[in-house]
Amino acid sequence: MVSLFWWRHRRLHGWAIITTFASKRKKRKFTTAAYPVEQLVRSHGESQTLYEPQIRSYVPVRDRRSDFENVPPSREEIEAFLARRRRLRAEGLKPEAAWPPPGGLGAGIGILGPLLHFQDYTAIYFYLVAPPTIGAQAKADLLYMTSSNTASKGCEALLSFFNTEQFNCVFRIWDWAHPDMPDGGKFVLNLDYRQLSQYLIPYRFILDSGSELDTVCVYIVNVTRRTNGTGFQNEVYLHNHANGTRDLVWSYAFDWPDKATAKAFWWGPIFETFPNPGSPQSVEQSRRI
Question: Is the pTM of this model over 0.85?
Answer without folding.
Answer: no
